[in-house]
Amino acid sequence: MLTILFDGIAYGMxxxxxxxxxxxxxxxxxxxxxxxGAFAMAGGYITVILVNRLGLPFLASLPLAFAFTAIIGAxxxxxxxxxxxxxxxxxxxxxxxxxxxMSVAAVDYVMGSQQQFxxxxxxxxxxxxxxxxxxxxxxxxxxxxxxxxxxALQFALASTRFGARLRxxxxxxxxxxxxxxxxxxxxxxxxAVGSGLAGLGGALGAEILGLDPHFPLKFLxxxxxxxxxxxxxxxxxxxxxxxxLGIGDVAGKYYVPQFxxxxxxxxxxxxxIWRPQGLFSRAVAK
Length: 286
Description:
The chain is globular. It is mainly alpha-helical. The protein is about 70% helix and about 5% strand. The N and C termini lie far apart (about 45 Å).
């Protein structure tokens, strides 16, 4: 049971790091970016190229995956996304889902359709025995990295000047510009960081989730479930939702494998019946 709990926490942490960028763009920027999974896929393939083909150490490839994906996100944000910020959510959905299918086709053409995994160094393979509980070294790394990122992200959004500027830009961009805030730069940086976090999550998750051109479509529903269940008014909600869903999914597949992924959808339905606005969203007064 403790081993399943540990694996579920690691899986939940991984889901959060990949999904938190979507939580920021959807919850704080009010932009529906269904192409978020494509940036996670980009981070995974960048890591595969750096580690498997160029021989770069795995740990050294992680910050590069973040940086490269953040740059890609910044370029896309300034050239494409900026034109649909003010469009309706339906138009944003159609635009971003179109980018997903384009990314799937492009990766399939360049990298091939076969599933790929990252070569993990030997010191991250296997398990360590902690009071009779088998703890996977690689999953322990995921928990440590994702935990540090979660604390840093929460601090940046809640306790820094940039976080205050972002909230001001989202609440009223016109007033924020009048106060001297460069709203375009704030949105560009936020989108780039969110894309970079997705890329880092894709790099860390390539070994566990597998990597193929249909990655954005296969895991899009998981990212949306995390944001929907957790709510979009804070980072705390998606974080708690990721842990609950990760533990529930791993435990469900272990104890009732015949139901497959049905457990995670059951959790989503129960939570949304109880709190339709999500775990940590404020209900809007009517």
